[in-house]
């Protein structure tokens, strides 16, 4: 019984790591775009690697502060729009 319990614990911990921890470090095209635009505008998003990290978050916060947007550190639609990454379309 102990070996089954140990197996289940290892299984669930491994599943959690592969399903939740790893995707955060994967390349995301929109993050790469945000990083490129922030760097071009003089902010420091860290490496242009398409991965969300603390440097990118700090750069987004600084951009939001400088742009008079709510400071969340998260690239919401307003932030992306002000960065020129997306445009709002009528009817959506």
Strand content: under 5%
Task: Report the radius of gyration as a whole number of Å.
Answer: 18 Å
**Shape category:** globular
What's the pLDDT, averaged over the residues?
A: 80
Q: Return the string of H and E elements.
A: HHHH
Query: Structural class from helices and strands?
Result: mainly alpha
Helix content: 55-70%
- Report the biggest beta sheet as strand number plus sense, adding barrel if it closes: none
Distance between the termini: 55 Å
**Stretches with pLDDT under 50, minimum 5 residues:** 16-23
Please explain how this structure is put together.
The protein is an all-alpha fold and 92 residues long. It has a domain at 26-83. Helix content is 58%, strand content 0%. It is built from four helices and no strands. The longest helix is centred in the first third of the chain and has 20 residues, at 2-21.
Would you spell out the secondary-structure blueprint of this structure?
Elements lengths: L1 H20 L7 H12 L13 H14 L9 H7 L9
Give keywords.
92 residues, mainly alpha
Summarize the structure.
This protein is mainly α. It has a domain at 26-83.
């Amino acid at each position: 019984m102990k070996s089954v319990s140990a197996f289940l614990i290892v299984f669930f911990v491994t599943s959690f790591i592969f399903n939740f921890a790893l995707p955060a470090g994967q390349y995301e095209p929109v993050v790469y775009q945000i990083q490129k635009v922030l760097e071009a505008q003089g902010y420091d998003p860290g490496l242009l690697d398409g991965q969300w990290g603390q440097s990118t978050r700090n750069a987004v916060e600084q951009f939001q502060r400088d742009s008079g947007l709510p400071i969340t550190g998260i690239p919401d639609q307003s932030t992306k729009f002000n960065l020129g990454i997306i445009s709002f379309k009528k009817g959506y």
